[in-house]
Amino acid sequence: MSQTDISFVCVNTPTHNSQQDLSQILSVLYQLANYLNSTDKPHMLVFRSTMLPGTMRSVVLNYLEKNCIKKRGVDYEVAYNPEFLRQISALEDFFKPDRAIIGDEGSNELSNLLVDIYKPLTKNIITTSFEAAELIKYASNCFLSLKISFFNEIGLICKHLGIDDKIVSLGVSLDKRIGKYGTEFGRPFDGMCLPKDTQALASFIKQNRIEPDLLEIVLNINKKIEDLTTTRQLVPGAREAHS
Predict the structure, then answer these.
(1) Which of 183, 177, 181 shows the shortest CA–CA distance to 152?
(2) Helix (H, G, I), strand (E, B) or coil at 142
(3) Identified catalytic residue from 68, 142, 158, 193
(4) What local confidence, expressed as pLDDT, does residue 107 receive?
(5) Whole-model pTM?
(6) What are the phi and psi torsion angles at 37 (to 5°)?
């Protein structure tokens, strides 16, 4: 960190019993606070891990303000820049992103430095609040889960009616508004991110006394397809899940 101006924090935030585990974030925060307390060099901290809305403010900023003697906005700045990288093509996705989402409430040179990094990579740079950036990440992943589950349900209907699900998926996927991703029947959404993020957001919504009816249905359909593939002794193909 002493040789750089920006540090990107990319650690796991797994879901245990539908609750987000922030232990790795807290471990990093401990190290970051210790470093900031030992240097006079300004530094930009960019968090890329998937975190539920409100986490950046209530956990990250709160921890640093309590444990760092330096002042945010003067000695250091904090931003949230969620990843949208597929496991099988992470490098390509980093250098050719659809968009860059930056949750950044600062207005100094450190904040502008992060925007400058992304300008050569994409024209679609959105700077917004921490909470909006956090929810954009979850909304993106949960929509992919929804899309996969929707087409799995269409596939189940096809099987019941004796219709070729591959033809139906192809016919729908050729609509440029929809596309091919996630339209193949028989593969539940899996990977490191889509299951945990869908579970975490559904649980988060419940805790905020909003009924996550659609997300619960998505999870139920996915479980049905998982059971179906297990029964048929099929190995589910890995989805291009976003992390």
Answers:
(1) 183
(2) helix
(3) 193
(4) 73
(5) 0.84
(6) -70, -15
